[in-house]
Each structure stands twice: as structure tokens, then as C-alpha cells.
Design a protein that fits this description.
This protein folds into two domains: about 1-100, Cathepsin D, subunit A, domain 1 (Beta Barrel), CATH 2.40.70; about 130-304, Cathepsin D, subunit A, domain 1 (Beta Barrel), CATH 2.40.70. The protein is mainly β. Residues about 1-5, about 5-10, about 185-200 and about 285-304 have low confidence and may be disordered. It contains five helices and 26 strands. β5 and β6 form a beta hairpin.
């Protein structure tokens, strides 16, 4: 088990050794395709950029420099021969990101009750260890995508993203929800071929900065009900904006949601098992549920 630090994005970090130096603080990001390092790591090791790649973030897509990493170690795991995008530490709030290229065949456990994280072999589950809810997922480009999910009756593909501060839906989901009018939508009157996030001064908004340093404005919608397998949550605040992440995954034309830490923190534990393609949830005592979203909306309530 690895003790956690709290960072300004309320994400979880772990100590990582890079080419024998460190430890550096990295996010565990189940929404990132690749492991990322920042200028703090390259400056400390004297590494030089020797390539370029396109990095898709929540609000932008940018060509960034890359560096070769000979050895990366965390949680008793060692990886070599990595080509990592190079970003600014000021945009991340940590020294790097452990992405999907370093998480396959592993299990990520986020224990919110004890502020602990485990990254371990997927087959190393302790005897008798159980979870209240287990949901099967499909794999696409390394991502774990839950398809047995609905928001206010709309079928939606859900990506569990430990690197996202809040949950974000795409335009296809927004317009389907608007047609049903069950929740509290932020605005009306946007042209049908435009995403409502371009409408200023109507409804609530929240600002965030993606890993490329781009400021993203999200419109807020409070869903009356979100179902994930047998799990039911009510009064769920969600953000909406045009994110290139949906396009990169081929999910821009169908309702999709990136489920971020703001909603995940209502659970006692969340485990993501990449080998079995399962996402597991432990439900909290109802008396301990609080509103963890930054939207200022009511607390997310859980039913099962």
C-alpha cells in the first residue's frame, strides 16, 4: 500500500523513481493513454527531448515534446523503454502521470476511507476480499469503458478517470438529456449544431485547467439519476464541454461521460481491474455521504 498526498486537484499521487532518481510524485491516471513526465523530472535528470507526439487533454489537443525513459519504478513495478510526453509541472500539480501504458494487467485500488492507494498485480487480491458492486467494462484503446450505464434514462458509455477532477459529459449526452428534460439543464436556446458551453451567462459554469494549460469552461447539469450496473446515484452534478478526449476514443457521436474523482469520492473504495475488465465499488455508510463535487450542488446520494 502507498500513502497518498492531497494535491490541488484532489487527485491521488504515488512516489515514482525515474532512471534511478527520485522519488517523484506522479498521478495514477486511468484516463491517460501514456505515462507523462514534467520539466521537474527532466531538469533533475538532465534529460533532453528527442521527439514529438500529440497529447489529447480534456480541453485541448497539442503537439508536445517527448523524452525516452530507460527505467520507471513504482509500487514494486519496473518499466523500461518508455517514450513519455513532456509537460509543464505547473499545469499538472505533480511531477508526472502514470498512464495506461504502465497499468495494463494491474489493479488500481483507491481507498478513500483510509487515504491509501494500491497498485498491484491483478491476481494478488486478498482472500475474502469483496466489493458491494462489481461492474463489467469493455476495453477500447486501453481504456475501461462501462456500457451498462444510464443518466436520466439515457444510455451512456462511462469512462472511469482517476485523473479528472470532475465528471464531464459530451455534446451527444447533453442533447439527449435536453430532449428528455428530466434534470436541471444549464441553458436553453443554443443552436442545435453548437454545444451549449459556448453560451455565456446562462446557467452555472465551472472553470478548470487541463494538462496542456488550457482553461476549460464547463456548463453544469444536475442529473436526477445515474445508474451504473445495479448501482443508483441521485442528484449527480456533471459538467459539459467539448472535449477532444471523446473524439480520440471514438465516443463523440454517442452519449458518453468521463467519471471523475468528484463523484468517485462518495464511495469508500473503488478498484479498477484491467485484467478482468471489472470496476468495483464499496458503498459508504449513508450517514457519511457528503457532497464532494466542486460545483456547489447537493450531495450525490447512493442507492443500490
Amino acid at each position: 500500500m502507498i500513502a497518498l498526498d492531497r494535491d490541488r486537484y484532489e487527485r491521488l499521487t504515488v512516489p515514482v523513481t525515474v532512471d534511478g532518481a527520485g522519488p517523484f510524485r506522479f498521478f495514477i491516471d486511468t484516463g491517460a493513454q501514456a505515462t507523462v513526465v514534467t520539466d521537474r523530472v527532466t531538469d533533475a535528470l538532465g534529460l533532453q527531448a528527442n521527439g514529438a507526439a500529440t497529447l489529447v487533454a480534456m480541453g485541448s489537443s497539442r503537439i508536445v515534446q517527448t523524452v525516452d525513459i530507460d527505467g520507471l519504478e513504482f509500487a514494486e513495478r519496473s518499466f523500461s523503454g518508455l517514450t513519455a510526453p513532456l509537460l509543464k509541472r505547473a499545469h499538472l500539480g505533480a511531477d508526472g502521470i502514470i498512464g495506461l501504458d504502465s497499468l495494463q494487467d494491474l489493479r488500481v485500488l483507491i481507498d478513500f476511507t483510509n487515504d491509501r492507494m494500491a497498485v498491484e498485480d491483478a491476481h494478488a487480491r486478498e482472500d475474502g476480499e469483496t466489493y458491494d458492486i462489481i461492474v463489467r467494462a469493455r476495453r477500447r484503446l486501453g481504456q475501461m469503458i462501462i456500457t451498462d450505464a444510464r443518466i436520466d434514462g439515457v444510455k451512456v458509455a462511462v469512462i472511469v478517470d482517476t485523473g479528472a477532477q470532475n465528471s464531464v459529459g459530451n455534446a451527444a449526452l447533453f442533447h439527449r438529456l435536453r430532449g428528455r428534460k428530466k434534470g436541471r439543464l444549464p441553458s436553453k436556446g443554443a443552436a442545435p449544431d453548437r454545444f451549449p458551453a459556448s453560451v455565456q451567462g446562462q446557467g452555472s459554469e465551472i472553470s478548470s485547467t487541463d494538462v496542456n494549460g488550457v482553461i476549460v469552461q464547463s456548463q453544469i447539469y444536475t442529473a436526477r439519476e445515474m445508474k451504473i450496473g445495479p448501482l443508483r446515484l441521485t442528484e449527480v452534478p456533471l459538467g459539459f464541454h467539448e472535449s477532444p478526449a471523446f473524439t480520440a476514443l471514438g465516443l463523440d457521436e454517442r452519449p458518453a461521460l468521463i467519471l471523475g474523482m468528484g463523484n468517485l469520492r462518495v464511495f469508500d473504495r473503488v478498484a479498477i481491474d484491467f485484467s478482468t475488465r471489472e470496476v468495483m465499488f464499496d458503498l459508504p455508510d449513508q450517514t457519511r455521504i457528503r457532497g464532494f463535487m466542486d460545483f456547489g450542488a447537493r450531495a450525490t446520494r447512493i442507492r443500490s
